[in-house]
Amino acid sequence: MPTIFGKILRGEAPADIVYKDDWVTAFRDIHPAASTHILIIPNKYIPTMNDVEEDDALLLGRMMLTAKKLAAQEGIAEDGYRLIINCNRHGGQEVYHLHLHLIGGRPLGPMILRR
Ligand code: DGP
Predict the structure, then answer these.
(1) Segment 16-41 mean pLDDT
(2) pTM for this structure?
(3) Minimal CA–CA distance to 21: which of 58, 48, 75?
(4) Cβ(15) to ligand 1 under 6 A?
């Protein structure tokens, strides 16, 4: 697991971990875009969305369900929130360990700035 997220999973780098089970780990983003900004990652190394396989279907479901539970815990479920997975260069991916952003706590505006 060559990224900083691998170090966080192994306990070699600090992180504000808010949830962990056998499948996924969730921790607060170091550069939050809103009052709630949590990253949900698989415990197994998957670099990008392009590397997801059929056998990962349950794992992806677990990531989504974890986001739903954490949104409720954070008190942002009713007002709403956004879930984002960035993939590769055009998607703006910076860390190449698959992660789902859970962002909320304020109106987030349009999803993509149109040009
Ligand atoms: P993305 O662009 O989708 O790859 O998002 C990567 C996110 O990871 C970005 O919002 C900042 C966050 N991040 C990068 N390095 C660290 C770190 O060392 N700790 C934490 N908690 N978050 C990090």
Answers:
(1) 98
(2) 0.97
(3) 58
(4) yes
